[in-house]
Structures are given as structure tokens and as C-alpha cells.
Design goal:
This protein has helices at 6-10, 13-25, 30-52, 62-90, 98-121, 126-150, 157-179, 186-221, 233-248, 257-274, 283-311, 320-345, 354-375, 383-411. The protein is mainly α. It has one domain (27-411): Cytochrome c oxidase-like, subunit I domain (Cytochrome C Oxidase, Chain A, Up-down Bundle), CATH 1.20.210.10.
């Protein structure tokens, strides 16, 4: 006669199910980090809409609940989920153990949720969770650096620049936290930290990954394609971005030409050199190409803004460059990489069906709508209303995308 194991019997079935689910969910780094990233992206965008619609009143500044959270809280979680997978592969090291990256995930999740709730209910507590976020990112940097350092791979250029960008992000975040205190030039310091975070941290990390992975993916989808990148691309890009961040501190659009013209020439020349076969690859690839093309478009807008400062300074551009880059490049490449990674690591073929293509195209339309919204300030065309519509459309698009792909992540492998 079978005698049940007392230990097994004492554990509730629901608890066993949860443990089994959690083991699957935490088996790959991108699963928890992508899920957390999309959740908080939707939550903080909703908070933005609620604030601009006067549904709720926030004590925190726009720099805190929008700029800071997008740069230092949300986007980095998506790309850490990716980095924790590819860093060991780039450097021929052992995979990161789930117990290691899940400790970091818990810190990110608690810090993100704490920042969100503190902004809504008691803004003075925000600094506590911002410090926790800083610690989580410092530990993430330490983990990636240890993998880089142990590797005996001869060429470690790409991972080196990811680490340099990450270090710039830690520096920018420290400056932002310092700016929260009542000190001279605190507002200027916060703006400098946001610019550092956006260009030297977020943009540079995403671009470092893009210039490595997009040409590589292309070789598998377009037989005969040859990768042809400039040797010092990341070095030159980072140097010009430092110049741009410094020039932005003067708050004079005319000066931006000094950095924007060479940045525009650099990326246009590079994309021409790559000869990406946009019409010869499936949608899962051309969306990534499209994301790259938003970079010169954004820098081109910045050049136009600087030129208009000479002849028509009354024309407002309202952060159009930053939002073009964030929506056109960051969000597009995020959904492109995200769709590919989610399908590929779940055992499915990484392809974009009509549903995915619809989402990809929708993001491009939303980006164009956000550009129009920036210029609507010049025509008294209901700027706040258009701003909310843009955010709501993006939220809807993210929810629709999540309904299919986050479900796959939640199931785990």
C-alpha cells in the first residue's frame, strides 16, 4: 500500500504550483526583467497621463516622475534582461545563475514599485527607493564587469563600451540624487544628470547592443550579407555624445550644432556603409533597421532646431529630439528585440506575423504623432490634449503587445 510522504503532504498544492511556476519564470534573465520593464513602463506612462489630465496632483517634478524614471528605472531593466543573457555569450563565460540575477531583479522590482508609490502618495520617500535603485544598478555593473574581467576573449570592445556607458549612468544617477537636496544650482545639476543619463547611459548602451546584434542577426536572415562596421565607431560616438551633453548645459540651441552635425554625419555614413538589406529580410529584422534610421532623423531635427534659433528663435521644438529618439529608436528596438528574444527563447521561430507588424507600424505612427505634438505648441493646437493622446495610444499599444508576448514570458520555459 502506498504511504504518502509527510513532507509532500504538508506542502499545499498551490504552493507547489507557485514554486514550479517561479522556477520556470526565473529560468532565463529576460523573462523577469522584460516583464518588470513593461509593467512599470505602462504604470509610469499612466501616471504621466493622470498628472497632465489633473486626475491626480503630484508633488514631484516632471524631471523626477517622467525623465528620471524613464532613464534610470524603466528602459534599463529591459536591456539588462538582454545583457544578462548575451554578456556571458559575448565573452565565452558560464551563464549567470538564476539565484544571482533574481536577487537583482527583486531589488529592481521593489525599488521601481517604491518609487512609483512614493511619487503618488508621499514624495519625500522617493529618495529612499532611488538609493535602492542606485545600489541595484551598481551591483549589476559589478556583475557584468566581473564577467568582462574574467574573460580571456581577445576582442572585448563591445562589452567594454557597455560597461563605460553603465558607469556613466551610475555617475548621472548620483548627480541626480545630489540635486534633490537644497544646494546651489540643483536644477542645473539635475538637468545635466538627465542629459548624461539619456545620451551617455541609455542611448549608448542601446546603441552598443544594436551595432553588435543587428548586423549579426542580418547575416542569418540575408545570406551573403557581410558586416562592415567602422573600427572606432563606439569611441567616436561616445566622444561626440560627451561634447553634446556638455553643450546642452549652456541651454543654447545654437551651440548644439557643434556636436549634432558630426553626430548626424557619423551615423548616416555608418548606416550607408552597413548596406542593410531592408527589403530583403522579414519584418522581425526590418523593424530593427527602421529603429536605427530614427537616430539620424532625431539628430537632423536637432540640427534644424539649432538653425532655427538663428532665424526664428520664437519657434518651439519642445524636447522633440529626445522624444523622437525615445519613441522612434528606444521603443522600436525594444519591441523588435523583445519579440525576437521572447519567441526565440521560448522555442518558437522568431518571426513577426501580421499582429507584430501592426504593433511595429503603430509605434512609428505614434512617434510621428509625438513629433507633431511637440510642434503644436506653436499653433495653439491643444498641446496637453495631444500629449495625453500620444501617451494613451502608446499605453494601449504596449498592453496589446504584452497580451501576447508577456504571457509567454510569464509562462516561462
Amino acid at each position: 500500500m502506498f504511504t504518502p510522504d509527510p513532507q509532500t503532504e504538508s506542502v499545499p498544492k498551490n504552493e507547489n504550483k507557485f514554486k514550479a511556476w517561479y522556477k520556470k519564470f526565473s529560468s532565463q534573465p529576460h523573462q523577469p526583467f522584460f516583464t518588470s520593464g513593461i509593467l512599470f513602463l505602462i504604470l509610469f506612462l499612466s501616471l504621466f497621463v493622470a498628472s497632465y489630465s489633473n486626475i491626480i496632483s503630484l508633488d514631484s517634478s516632471l524631471l523626477t516622475y517622467h525623465a528620471y524614471t524613464m532613464i534610470f528605472v524603466i528602459f534599463i531593466q529591459f536591456f539588462l534582461g538582454f545583457l544578462f543573457v548575451v554578456f556571458p555569450r559575448f565573452l565565452m563565460q558560464a551563464e549567470i545563475k538564476p539565484e544571482v540575477y533574481m536577487k537583482l531583479f527583486h531589488m529592481y522590482f521593489i525599488a521601481s514599485l517604491g518609487i512609483f508609490l512614493a511619487i503618488v502618495f508621499f514624495s519625500k520617500l522617493t529618495i529612499v527607493f532611488q538609493l535602492l535603485m542606485l545600489v541595484a544598478q551598481a551591483l549589476s555593473f559589478k556583475l557584468l564587469y566581473s564577467i568582462h574581467k574574467k574573460s580571456i576573449v581577445k576582442v572585448k570592445e563591445d562589452t567594454k563600451w557597455v560597461l563605460i556607458s553603465f558607469a556613466a549612468g551610475l555617475f548621472g544617477q548620483v548627480l541626480f540624487l545630489i540635486s534633490n537636496f537644497d544646494i546651489p544650482y540643483s536644477y542645473e545639476l539635475s538637468k545635466f544628470s538627465i542629459n548624461t543619463g539619456f545620451y551617455l547611459f541609455l542611448f549608448m548602451i542601446i546603441f552598443s547592443i544594436s551595432q553588435r546584434m543587428i548586423p549579426f542577426f542580418t547575416t542569418s536572415k540575408a545570406p551573403g550579407y557581410v558586416i562592415n562596421k567602422s573600427k572606432n565607431l563606439l569611441l567616436v560616438m561616445f566622444g561626440l555624445l560627451i561634447l553634446k551633453v556638455v553643450l546642452l548645459t549652456f541651454d543654447n540651441a545654437k551651440l548644439n550644432l557643434v556636436a549634432d552635425i558630426p553626430l548626424f554625419i557619423l551615423i548616416v555614413r555608418e548606416l550607408i556603409k552597413w548596406k542593410l538589406p531592408i527589403f530583403k529580410v522579414p519584418a522581425i529584422m526590418w523593424v530593427l533597421f527602421l529603429a536605427l534610421y530614427w537616430i539620424p532623423f532625431a539628430f537632423g531635427l536637432s540640427i534644424i532646431e539649432s538653425l532655427m534659433a538663428f532665424v526664428a528663435p520664437e519657434i518651439l521644438f519642445e524636447k522633440v529630439v529626445v522624444h523622437t529618439m525615445a519613441l522612434g529608436y528606444f521603443i522600436t528596438v525594444l519591441l523588435g528585440f523583445g519579440t525576437r528574444v521572447v519567441l526565440g527563447h521560448s522555442g518558437s521561430t522568431p518571426t513577426a506575423d501580421d499582429f507584430a507588424v501592426f504593433i511595429f507600424i503603430s509605434v512609428q505612427v505614434i512617434t510621428l504623432f509625438r513629433i507633431f505634438t511637440s510642434f503644436s505648441l506653436n499653433f495653439e493646437s491643444g498641446y496637453t490634449f495631444l500629449l495625453n493622446i500620444t501617451a494613451i495610444l502608446l499605453i494601449i499599444g504596449l498592453i496589446i503587445w504584452s497580451n501576447r508576448y508577456i504571457r509567454i514570458l510569464l509562462k516561462g520555459k
